[in-house]
Amino acid sequence: MNNEPKTLVKCSVSNCNYWGEKNICRAEKIMIEIDSHATANLNEEFGDEPYHGNHRDQAQTSSATCCLTFKPK
Q1: Span between the terminal Cα atoms of the chain, in Å
Q2: What is the pLDDT of residue 23?
Q3: E-assigned strands of 1-73?
Q4: Residue 45 lies inside a defined structural domain of this protein
Q5: What is the phi/psi pair of residue 23, to 5°?
Q6: What is the CA radius of gyration of the chain?
Q7: What span, in angstroms and rounded, lies between the C-alpha atoms of 69 and 73?
Q8: Coil, strand or helix: which one is 55?
Q9: What is the pLDDT of residues 22-73, one digit of tens each?
Q10: How many structural domains does the chain have?
Q11: Separation between Cα atoms, residue 55 and residue 52, nearest integer Å
C-alpha cells in the first residue's frame, strides 16, 4: 500500500484526457519536462539518451517547463 500523500494538481487545459471537475488533474502520474526537451519522442528509446526521467535539469522560471502528460480528449 502506498502511504505517500497525493498531490493535488490543478490544470486549465480542459481538452486533456485527464482533466476533471474543478480543473483537477486525474492522471495517476504526471511527467514534466523543461521546454528544451519538449519535442523529444518519449515513445522511443535510443541507446543512452537521457529521457524518461533519468536526467536532471534546472528551470530558471516556471514558464520554461511543460507538462508531457497531456493527452487530448
Answers
A1: 30
A2: 92
A3: 32-34, 65-67
A4: yes
A5: 65, 25
A6: 14
A7: 12
A8: coil
A9: 999 999 888 887 777 666 665 555 444 444 556 677 778 877 888 878 888 8
A10: 1
A11: 8
